Amino acid sequence: MNVLHLSGDPKEIGRQHGEQGKQEMINSMNTYERLFYEFQGIDWTDVKERAKIHIPAIEAFDIALLEEMEGVAEGSGMTFEDVLALNARSEIALTGDAHTSFSDGCTSISTCSPVTNDTIMGQTWDWKGSQKDSLLMLNIEREDRPNVSMITEAGIIGKIGCNDHAIGVGLNALHSSQKTKGIPIHLGLRSILDTSSLHEAMANVQEGQMASAANFMIGYHEDQRGGMALHVEVSPYGIAVTNQDTSYGVHANHICSQEIQMKVGDNNNLRYSDSEIRERRAKQLVTQAIQEQQTITDETFKTWLSDTFNAPNSINHYANEQVPSHRQIETVFAVVMNLSTNRLHVCDGMPAHDPFETYTITKQ
């Protein structure tokens, strides 16, 4: 995975991203252009037109996001509309007809006090295996906003990671039938990483600003006071916190909140054969550790994310040849974030087979 170190104002950060990650962006564009055309019959020109409906909402929400995407386009030599389409790919790929849309995977787990002294979050990211060649780790240093470390698909300016104010965010895709012209969820993820407190992070998603549904695993640690991690299902019609026991939480790729489900619809037709099993397995692993009074650490999370129970539809996910090809997804990377120690452990590949590398978040 290519690691980029970016700094400056939003436009310059974007320019460096596009320039240094150009080949990964080309890989990503090729993947999505092919997927959208082969399985939804949408050519890239139409994809870009669909993405443009989000511009007014983004401009009103945080114009720096637009400026950074403009910089990515400038640095990569692509058009702004290309970059915008990448950042709105979930709104295009994961909403609408369940038979033609795609399905991201991902299993997320969080623990905090009193289960663990540290505030720890971890997840797999399951998607098309070809996207491994499109991944970047971005280390962003700024003077006016928190420093950020995140793993993303090249060209997408928000995804999974944490910042130097001990805010972290993870993503579980949710396949729904409804979307709006609001903020694409990947930009919502970035807006959380640009905050310095839990209440700021929640304020950025609580009023239905997001254009589509997703689960955001949002964590925060506050020195000696401990921390908290919330699994927040976001949607254009409001949010729902789904982990009632705030000491731990798990989530996969189906909508847990009945209220959210009623408003946006849950089109995950693999819910009971895949997502439900992964979520229940994750909960089983956590509760077993608690009952056995195990000391839960970063290493414990790595073991959980490596779990192959019920393969291929396991937490460490393998491509399932029994489902349509556009739904054959696998674990492309995994990450464990310790918000108490400012450490990020990244597995470039499947955690059942590939090692984790450890990074320390740079503080201002």
Automatic annotation (TrEMBL):
Protein name as annotated: C45 family autoproteolytic acyltransferase/hydolase
* Record-annotated Peptidase C45 hydrolase domain positions: 117-316
Judging by the UniProt lineage, the source's domain of life is Bacteria
On whether Transcription is a keyword of this UniProt record, the answer is no
Q: Where is this region: Disordered?
A: 1-21
Q: Name one GO molecular function term.
A: acyltransferase activity
UniProt keyword annotations, A-Z: Acyltransferase, Transferase
The annotated regions of Basic and acidic residues compositional bias extend over: 8-21
Tell me the InterPro entries matching this sequence. Answer: C45_proenzyme-like, Peptidase_C45, Peptidase_C45_hydrolase
